[in-house]
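Reviewer 2 asked us to include a model.

Predict the structure of this chain.
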Amino acid sequence: MIKKDDCGGVVIRSIPGKFCKGLWKIKFIPKCVHFVWKVCKDILLVRQNLSRKGMDVDPICPRCAQAEEDIVNAFLLCDEVRRIWFASSLGGRIKVGQGSSFAGWFVECL
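Predicted model (structure tokens):
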């Protein structure tokens, strides 16, 4: 669904406005905050987004070769990424399904 959000942009997978406004108030490394914002807004240059912009790239994930490399696949669903999450101290199993947004998952984790 395309709609205007409280951050002033048009997004396909909208983030709750309070989260978007609050993200910029976090006292953390600015580059990291900007990175999280780009991921949540689905504007990070993953293969699916590059392909959508007309670049001649294969949109399939180079790590798992099972799905298009979108934000959710690149950070949550890819088998290689799941192994990293499982090995990390942040928590073993990622609970997210196809069609979910990274922003929704991220807000749930907070």
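The chain is about 45% helix and 5% strand. The radius of gyration is 14 Å. We have added this to the supplementary material.
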